[in-house]
Amino acid sequence: MAHALAMARRGLGLTWPNPAVGCVIVKEGRILGRGTTAPGGRPHAEPQALAQAGAAARGATAYVTLEPCAHTGKTGPCAEALVRAGVARVVSALQDPDPRVAGRGHDILRAAGIAVTTGVRAAEAAVLQEGFLSRITRGRPMLTLKLALSLDGRIATSSGESRWITGPEARARVHLMRAGHDAVMVGAGTARADDPELTLRLPGYRHQPLRIVVSGGLDLPRGGRMEASLPQGRFLLIHGSAAPEEARSHWMKKGAEPIEVASGPSGSVDPEALMQALGDLGLTRVFCEGGGAFAAGLIGADLVDQIEVFTAGVLLGADGRAGLGALGVAALSEAPRFEMTQMQQIGGDLWQSWRRRG
């Protein structure tokens, strides 16, 4: 199962709206076939592993990181494929909460006389599948927030300069994190200050995550890097109802996809409506890179599941721009709390990974 989980991890950021699943087929201590969900979600891991194993799969054990599917989409159910292959046993880490499956895959296997063992390395699988599980059970993708901060918690100088607070090694790690998510997202403030491309720049890596800019009024820079980068991959502009029709038309003509969602009292995009809209699009894992006010809105709405913090050995002072906007916390008991799961020195910077408590 550890090997199957490693196979599944390869598909993170590539398979949405489907989960990234790993499958390993074993008989008499020898691996006969293995597979991971292909980019775009098809084919699934199980038929790929079965194709490698061929006739030798009869009597073998299949280790799968998520319950084999039981519904027919573009392909037939994976549970039935395992039955046809004649495997003797299926070991799965998690039951699939998708209503189209939800135990039916395991039932198909048991009805065919296949031994089924569930819950193996379930905690690890749940972390790996968090994005898919979130979309199915909460209607929204998992949200990771990235912060690149000075030692005193600032994201830019008083003049707005922020390139680059962290070093090249930390920035390379951020690109690896982008690669493991379906989409990269920023707020309007960051779009105006940095005019970012939001592209994935890793040697030999051609896949580009979906790019998202959230701007209630679509008051975004034109003619710069961001606009020039539109042909490099799909680009969404999430806006409110007050966004001018001229701005919507401009960006649509340039190749972006404007999507309207509900606005909050200030006219900015409502965070919960935003995440619901992204879930409706099929996204499972979203990587948010700021800015401070946008991040504070997401945290305040209890929508951030994980925070990746990169801290550089530089001090910017009280006149620098804070890493987060106002949260309105009057008492410590009201403060959002996270638990650190990893910490590592990367180049001259410190990386910490924090997960939401509970």
UniProtKB/TrEMBL annotation:
Residues binding substrate: 162, 178, 198, 201, 289
Keyword line: Hydrolase, Metal-binding, Multifunctional enzyme, NADP, Oxidoreductase, Riboflavin biosynthesis, Zinc
CMP/dCMP-type deaminase domain boundaries: 1-116
Active site: 46
Positions of Zn(2+) binding: 44, 69, 78
Record has Phosphoprotein as a keyword: no
Catalysed reaction, written as an equation: 5-amino-6-(5-phospho-D-ribitylamino)uracil + NADP(+) = 5-amino-6-(5-phospho-D-ribosylamino)uracil + NADPH + H(+); 2,5-diamino-6-hydroxy-4-(5-phosphoribosylamino)-pyrimidine + H2O + H(+) = 5-amino-6-(5-phospho-D-ribosylamino)uracil + NH4(+)
Residue positions binding NADP(+): 148, 164, 190, 194, 291-297
Comment on bound cofactor: Binds 1 zinc ion.
Entry function: Converts 2,5-diamino-6-(ribosylamino)-4(3h)-pyrimidinone 5'-phosphate into 5-amino-6-(ribosylamino)-2,4(1h,3h)-pyrimidinedione 5'-phosphate.
Xref: PANTHER family: 2,5-DIAMINO-6-RIBOSYLAMINO-4(3H)-PYRIMIDINONE 5'-PHOSPHATE REDUCTASE, DIHYDROFOLATE REDUCTASE FAMILY PROTEIN (AFU_ORTHOLOGUE AFUA_8G06820)
Protein name, entry field: Riboflavin biosynthesis protein RibD
Source organism per UniProt: Falsigemmobacter faecalis
Lineage: Bacteria, Pseudomonadati, Pseudomonadota, Alphaproteobacteria, Rhodobacterales
